[in-house]
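Run log // design_07
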């Protein structure tokens, strides 16, 4: 019997949902991928289409316009995109933004933004990183000062912002009290269409994730009303960011494992077709051993990631364990895809083969969402 990597969290309803996701990806996202890779973004129409089909904010409650599902519904979307190396829509950052609003926003903020995010009308982005600081989030310099009318004025710049070009809603991590580190940070909600002084800078050229927009953002005296402070209480930004880390880090672990599965399946197909020295490449002992090792890593990873999925849904996934999922997933993804690519020979280096894209896309998984070194710090603190 062929090895299968079944998810312990799936069920027949989720299988049906997965079919809808796959249909959307194959019929609506994949055909535009080449153009998106050239343009550096997928455009708004495909986001709206995903919204119409109920594929955005799937784990946000229905009374806020979401799908009323749970983390597994989000996971299905990430998995099916990652296994096909289709990275144009950063639905995970969109979901993370929606969760900040759901978990920390005021009732008015939830009502105002979540239904539009679920419909794909507002693409979400989160702007923490700045040219001068990434890992050390507490050192950000983007400043938000109270205006005489009680609102906020934002000045500063952000970089490497996923969905930055298409975003209609940006959560901006700002210093509201520069004298303090963590306690001086607040998150302000910026609706980009109504924010004079807001400007998208360069759409950044990258070695991977070519179809996904990653941009610089500039805030020159951007004024937002008092009600745009996330949760309504100043100085809560760092706490808000930290409390959602298990969700964010598990997403990267889920995507990493799905990318490994996609690479493994593509490689299996390739080595069965490719002939070397008069027989299929699949019959060389090295090939068989490499794929046996990879299948074993995926099977072991599946057990761990699935356990994290169950714990996240039960509310018991701690940040250190989620950081292990991100660390293990992203590091193993890099190694596994490198070994898969080797089995493609020169074809693995050619852009027309998805394994080539998987290789370059994998690299950043060890950097964004907290680097591998930061993951080790977090895990080490919990030892
Ligand atoms: C494609 C892409 C998309 C991104 N999307 C977003 C986004 O949507 N929003 C956002 O806010 N940011 C985003 N980022 C930024 C990303 O989160 C940061 O790049 C990352 O956190 C690292 O920060 P840095 O680049 O400033 O590196 P630095 O913090 O300067 O780190 C440089 C090196 O030093 C190491 N290092 C740092 N601190 C320590 C330490 N204490 N101990 C040991 N080693 C350490 C790091 O691990 C790394 O190897 C994105 C980045 C990329 C590349």
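design_07 sequence
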């Amino acid at each position: 019997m062929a090895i299968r990597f079944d998810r312990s969290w799936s069920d027949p309803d989720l299988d049906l949902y997965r079919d809808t996701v796959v249909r959307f990806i194959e019929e609506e996202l994949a055909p535009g991928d080449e153009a998106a890779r050239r343009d550096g973004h997928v455009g708004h129409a495909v986001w709206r289409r995903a919204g119409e089909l109920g594929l955005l904010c799937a784990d946000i409650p229905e009374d806020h316009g979401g799908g009323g599902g749970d983390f597994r519904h989000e996971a299905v979307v990430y998995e099916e995109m990652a296994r096909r190396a289709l990275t144009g829509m950063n639905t995970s950052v969109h979901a993370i933004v929606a969760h900040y609003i759901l978990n920390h926003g005021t009732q008015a903020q939830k009502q105002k933004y979540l239904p539009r995010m679920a419909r794909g009308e507002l693409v979400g982005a989160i702007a923490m990183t700045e040219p001068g600081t990434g890992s050390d989030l507490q050192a950000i310099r983007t400043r938000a000062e109270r205006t005489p009318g009680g609102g906020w004025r934002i000045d500063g710049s952000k970089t490497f912002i996923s969905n930055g070009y298409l975003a209609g809603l940006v959560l901006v991590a700002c210093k509201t009290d520069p004298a303090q580190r963590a306690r001086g940070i607040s998150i302000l909600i910026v609706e980009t269409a109504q924010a004079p002084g807001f400007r998208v800078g360069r759409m950044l050229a990258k070695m991977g994730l070519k179809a996904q927009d990653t941009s610089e953002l500039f805030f020159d005296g951007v004024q937002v009303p008092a009600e745009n402070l996330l949760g309504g209480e100043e100085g809560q930004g760092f706490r808000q960011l930290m409390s959602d880390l298990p969700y964010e880090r598990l997403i990267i672990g889920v995507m990493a494992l799905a990318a490994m599965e996609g690479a493994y399946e593509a490689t299996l197909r390739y080595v069965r077709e490719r002939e070397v020295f008069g027989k299929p490449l699949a019959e060389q002992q090295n090939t068989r051993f490499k794929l046996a090792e990879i299948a074993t890593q995926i099977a072991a990873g599946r057990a761990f990631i699935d356990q994290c999925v169950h714990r996240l849904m039960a509310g018991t996934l701690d940040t250190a364990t989620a950081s292990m999922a991100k660390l293990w997933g992203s590091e193993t993804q890099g190694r596994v895809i490198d070994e898969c690519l080797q089995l493609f020979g020169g074809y693995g280096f050619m852009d027309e083969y998805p394994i080539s894209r998987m290789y370059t896309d994998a690299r950043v998984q060890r950097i964004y969402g907290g680097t591998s070194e930061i993951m080790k710090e977090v895990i080490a603190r919990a030892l």
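The chain has a mean pLDDT of 97.
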